[in-house]
Structures are given as structure tokens and as C-alpha cells.
């Protein structure tokens, strides 16, 4: 009994030490990245301050991501899908969030984005996409731009190759990267339509994603096998395409022989106007 009380007191003291250390770290500050202990604190800070939801649309196997600052309630939504906008709006309302930006990682070929409908459903939301996508949106971003939401922000890394306007959105403490179709879990986006280029994609992933910290979590736009998350280290070790040499990668990509996405002829024109095709 006595030893149980001692153990409980020790655990309480340790928890207090952790929480006061975490409280000293501004989310996304340079101090929040670095040693293992510091990065562990940064993750604790995130748990306390950053709301995160991974949502799934099963027809196109698309992941939509909701991130919000728990304090200010400001939120961003990454890669919403037209068919699941009502689900997303309901969740945003239930959680009392203010959606600031609905952002696309690229001009999708397989589904219509939800950004256009979201702009109609939620007052004040701005759509955003890369200026190299050729698509219309309220905000056109490029390399190094930040998408702020409360105390947090997403930093834009241009990762072309699947399309010209593909970006990876990285949290400012580099603990999470939303890679769109540039890097999928144990795979990558195809390069046989839109402005696809295998060499460009290989360079993008190696220079802009594999240079992130090894523990950085990888959240892709799609998964077709039930996988939900990976890390930079895991993909550097186990990605069956991107661990190969450039020549081998190009050969793999030129021989995927995938069928065209069923909705490509409808989705691409719609997504070039951020889903506002029927207005
Ligand atoms: N069957 C789906 C389309 C599947 C597909 O082509 N996925 C793309 C990402 S969406 S542009 C892709 O890059 N896949 C890479 C891979 O290796 O599977 C449909 O008809 O919509
Ligand atoms: Fe795509």
C-alpha cells in the first residue's frame, strides 16, 4: 500500500515536470524541434493545443484532415471531398471551430474537391491551392508560404511531379507532413497524366520530404490498403519505389499500367475552379 502511494506521488511529480516543461514551449518554436526530450515535449504540447482529425472518403479512398488551435478554435481543412462536405461541416460545428481555410494539396484527378461547396456552406472560408496548379482559388500559395490557424501554421513545400502544383504542407514544428499524392504510404502518386514527371517527383520527395526529421509523421491524400500514417524514416527505409535509384524509379513509374481514374474527365475541370463548376 505504502509503495503504491510512493509510486503514485512519483508519477504525479513526473507529470508536473513534463507539463511545466511543455508549457514553456511555444508551438512551432525552434526550441520545440531538436533533442528527443524536446521533441517529446513538443508532441505533448500539440496534444494539449492542437486538435487533429483524419477523416476518410471511401469511394475515392481520400483522406481529409482537420487541424485546429484548441485555444482560438481557428481551423484548416486539407483535401475535403464534395461528397463528405456535410459530414465535415457537422464535425466543425460540433467542435465549435471557425474554419478559416479549405486547402487542396493539388488539382485532384479522381474526385471533386469539397472547397467550392464549403465556401457556400461556411461563412468566411477561403479556398487555397498552389499557384502552379493552374486552378482558381481565393489564396494561391507558393514555396515557403504559411497558412495560419490560431497559434499554428502549415508551411508550404512545393513537391511537383504527380502534378505541377503538388505541395506538401508541414506543421511549423515539422512533426507532421501532409504529402498529398507526392508521397503515399509505401507508394507515391502516379506520373502518367496531368503534368506528371517521374524524375521531378523523385527529386521532390528526396529534396523536400526525405529531408524532414525522421520522426515526422506522413499523412497522404490517399490510401488503398487501409494504412493511415507513416514516418519519414519508415518511407526512407521501406518505400518500394523511392528507395530505388532514379533510373529504377523512372522505370517503375513508366510501367505501372494503372487504369485512368474513373472520374478524371469530370473532376479535373471542376477542380480547376475549386469545385465551383455549377455556379
Ligand atoms: N482507381 C481510382 C484511381 C486510383 C489512382 O490512380 N490513384 C492515384 C491518386 S488519385 S490522382 C495515384 O496516383 N495512384 C498511385 C498508385 O500507385 O496507385 C479511381 O478510379 O478513381
Ligand atoms: Fe492526384
UniProtKB/TrEMBL annotation:
Requisite cofactors: Fe(2+)
Name of the protein in its database record: Persulfide dioxygenase ETHE1, mitochondrial
Top-level enzyme category: oxidoreductase
Subcellular location: Mitochondrion
One annotated GO biological process: glutathione metabolic process
Reactions the enzyme catalyzes: S-sulfanylglutathione + O2 + H2O = sulfite + glutathione + 2 H(+)
SUPFAM superfamilies, A to Z: Metallo-hydrolase/oxidoreductase
A GO MF label: sulfur dioxygenase activity
Highest taxon listed in the record's lineage: Eukaryota
GO cellular component: mitochondrion
Residues covered by the Metallo-beta-lactamase domain: 61-222
Subunit structure: Homodimer. Monomer. Interacts with TST. May interact with RELA.
Keyword Amino-acid biosynthesis: no
Family assignment from sequence similarity: Belongs to the metallo-beta-lactamase superfamily. Glyoxalase II family.
Database matches in InterPro entries: Metallo-B-lactamas, Mito_Persulfide_Diox, POD-like_MBL-fold, RibonucZ/Hydroxyglut_hydro
Keyword vocabulary terms for this entry: Acetylation, Dioxygenase, Iron, Metal-binding, Mitochondrion, Oxidoreductase, Transit peptide
Oxidoreductase as UniProt keyword: yes
E.C. no: 1.13.11.18
Amino acid at each position: 500500500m505504502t509503495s503504491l502511494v510512493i509510486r503514485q506521488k512519483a508519477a504525479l511529480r513526473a507529470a508536473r515536470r513534463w507539463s511545466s516543461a511543455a508549457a514553456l514551449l511555444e508551438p512551432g518554436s525552434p526550441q520545440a524541434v531538436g533533442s528527443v526530450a524536446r521533441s517529446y515535449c513538443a508532441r505533448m504540447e500539440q496534444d494539449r493545443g492542437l486538435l487533429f482529425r483524419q477523416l476518410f472518403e471511401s469511394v475515392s479512398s481520400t483522406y481529409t484532415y482537420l487541424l485546429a488551435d484548441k485555444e482560438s478554435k481557428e481551423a484548416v481543412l486539407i483535401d475535403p471531398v464534395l461528397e463528405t462536405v456535410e459530414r465535415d461541416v457537422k464535425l466543425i460545428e460540433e467542435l465549435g471551430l471557425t474554419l478559416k481555410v479549405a486547402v487542396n494539396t493539388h488539382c485532384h484527378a479522381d474526385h471533386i474537391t469539397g472547397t467550392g461547396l464549403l465556401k457556400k456552406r461556411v461563412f468566411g472560408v477561403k479556398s487555397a491551392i498552389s499557384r502552379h496548379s493552374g486552378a482558381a482559388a481565393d489564396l494561391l500559395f507558393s514555396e515557403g508560404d504559411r497558412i495560419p490557424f490560431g497559434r499554428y501554421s502549415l508551411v508550404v513545400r512545393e513537391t511537383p511531379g504527380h502534378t505541377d502544383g503538388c505541395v506538401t504542407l508541414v506543421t511549423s514544428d515539422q512533426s507532421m507532413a501532409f504529402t498529398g499524392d507526392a508521397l503515399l504510404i509505401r507508394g507515391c502518386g502516379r506520373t502518367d497524366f496531368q503534368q506528371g514527371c517521374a524524375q521531378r517527383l523523385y527529386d521532390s520527395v528526396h529534396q523536400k520530404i526525405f529531408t524532414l526529421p525522421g520522426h515526422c509523421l506522413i499523412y497522404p491524400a490517399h490510401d488503398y490498403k487501409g494504412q493511415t500514417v507513416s514516418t519519414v524514416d519508415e518511407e526512407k527505409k521501406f518505400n518500394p519505389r523511392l528507395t530505388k535509384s532514379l533510373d529504377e524509379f523512372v522505370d517503375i513509374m513508366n510501367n505501372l499500367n494503372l487504369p485512368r481514374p474513373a472520374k478524371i474527365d469530370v473532376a479535373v475541370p471542376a477542380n480547376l475552379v475549386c469545385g465551383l463548376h455549377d455556379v
